[in-house]
């Protein structure tokens, strides 16, 4: 059995037994490997230690239970913490705030009414666990305004001439192209730029994010035109993103690969996973597995906990 298949089985086993006492020894034995060998395999494949992954998933699943109204102490004990304070310390280290904040969101939702699951991702955004997203079916102009607002609030840059130039090029290049959701294709490009702004990427990376699909989607715009209108660096980032699959081994082997292009590819995958429901359902499992096998390790290396947490949860939901 290939290692990536073993890892998928391992992740599923962890999810199915998340409230049990999960140790390196018991998981390794279940997967049919020695403790040392499986620990090494897991770190090599996932770029994070096995027990660090287990701890992260326990804390996230505990967050879900608190959001559904369970008492914090009950949740702490269920997920293997002996005391309320021990759980709170681990939770605060992971998310930067106490679990009582999550419980407060639950109380607020009781008064507001509505279905928790219908607005689950927005709740996670409010709790600062996920990067902020946008609603589907927004017009390009509205999304672009949200992009500018995000850039301003994160104090990334304040001269929007080049960004507007890129936005207009993206509108023109993707004119007539549609996503499976029925939206204008350019909305995907703008959403990728918004995610990059949430990640506090620099101006050139956000612009490259806006234009990241102009080659792959055969818009007729060339990299030479991008270089002449913007910069060689932006053209190179777009080229790296377009040829990501061919150059993926360079990332894994820690060879030269622009980290800004990696940011764009992660933002691209995150938005695609956020809108996976519009894809043919037969491909959900394929995309989820691809996300686990390729993008989990990259997100772990990139050390953006919000992005990694959301990618984890989206992929595990559809695997």
Automatic annotation (TrEMBL):
<dbReference type="InterPro" id="IPR018062">
    <property type="entry name" value="HTH_AraC-typ_CS"/>
</dbReference>
<dbReference type="GO" id="GO:0043565">
    <property type="term" value="F:sequence-specific DNA binding"/>
</dbReference>
<dbReference type="InterPro" id="IPR009057">
    <property type="entry name" value="Homeodomain-like_sf"/>
</dbReference>
<protein>
    <submittedName>
        <fullName>AraC family transcriptional regulator</fullName>
    </submittedName>
</protein>
<dbReference type="GO" id="GO:0005886">
    <property type="term" value="C:plasma membrane"/>
</dbReference>
<dbReference type="InterPro" id="IPR003607">
    <property type="entry name" value="HD/PDEase_dom"/>
</dbReference>
<dbReference type="Pfam" id="PF13328">
    <property type="entry name" value="HD_4"/>
</dbReference>
<dbReference type="InterPro" id="IPR018060">
    <property type="entry name" value="HTH_AraC"/>
</dbReference>
<feature type="domain" description="HD">
    <location>
        <begin position="185"/>
        <end position="273"/>
    </location>
</feature>
<feature type="domain" description="HTH araC/xylS-type">
    <location>
        <begin position="8"/>
        <end position="105"/>
    </location>
</feature>
<keyword id="KW-0805">Transcription regulation</keyword>
<keyword id="KW-0238">DNA-binding</keyword>
<dbReference type="Pfam" id="PF12833">
    <property type="entry name" value="HTH_18"/>
</dbReference>
<dbReference type="InterPro" id="IPR006674">
    <property type="entry name" value="HD_domain"/>
</dbReference>
<dbReference type="GO" id="GO:0003700">
    <property type="term" value="F:DNA-binding transcription factor activity"/>
</dbReference>
<keyword id="KW-0804">Transcription</keyword>
């Amino acid at each position: 059995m290939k290692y990536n298949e073993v890892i998928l089985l391992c992740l599923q086993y962890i999810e199915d037994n998340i409230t049990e006492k999960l140790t390196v020894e018991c998981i390794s034995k279940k997967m049919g490997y020695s403790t040392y060998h499986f620990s090494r395999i897991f770190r090599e494949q996932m770029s994070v230690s096995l027990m660090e992954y287990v701890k992260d998933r326990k804390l996230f699943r505990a967050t879900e239970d608190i959001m559904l109204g369970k008492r914090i102490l009950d949740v702490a004990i269920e997920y293997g913490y002996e005391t309320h304070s021990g759980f709170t310390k681990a939770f605060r280290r992971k998310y930067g705030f106490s679990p009582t904040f999550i419980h407060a969101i639950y109380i607020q939702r009781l008064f507001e009414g509505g279905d928790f699951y219908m607005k689950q991702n927005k709740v996670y955004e409010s709790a600062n666990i996920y990067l902020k997203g946008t609603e589907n079916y927004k017009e390009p102009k509205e999304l672009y305004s949200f992009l500018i607002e995000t850039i301003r609030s994160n104090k990334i840059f304040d001269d929007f001439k080049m960004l507007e130039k890129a936005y207009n090029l993206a509108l023109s290049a993707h004119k007539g192209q549609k996503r499976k959701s029925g939206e204008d294709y350019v909305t995907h490009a703008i959403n990728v730029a918004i995610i990059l702004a949430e990640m506090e990427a620099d101006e050139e990376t956000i612009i490259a994010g806006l234009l990241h699909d102009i080659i792959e989607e055969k818009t007729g715009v060339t990299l030479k035109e991008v270089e002449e209108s913007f910069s060689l660096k932006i053209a190179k980032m777009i080229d790296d993103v377009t040829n990501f699959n061919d150059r993926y081994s360079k990332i894994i082997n820690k060879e030269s690969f622009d980290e800004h292009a990696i940011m764009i590819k992660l933002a691209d995958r995150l938005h695609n996973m956020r809108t996976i429901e519009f894809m043919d359902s037969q491909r959900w499992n394929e995309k989820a597995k691809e996300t686990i096998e390729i993008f989990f390790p990259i997100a772990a290396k990139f050390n953006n906990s919000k992005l990694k947490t959301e990618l984890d949860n989206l992929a595990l939901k559809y695997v």
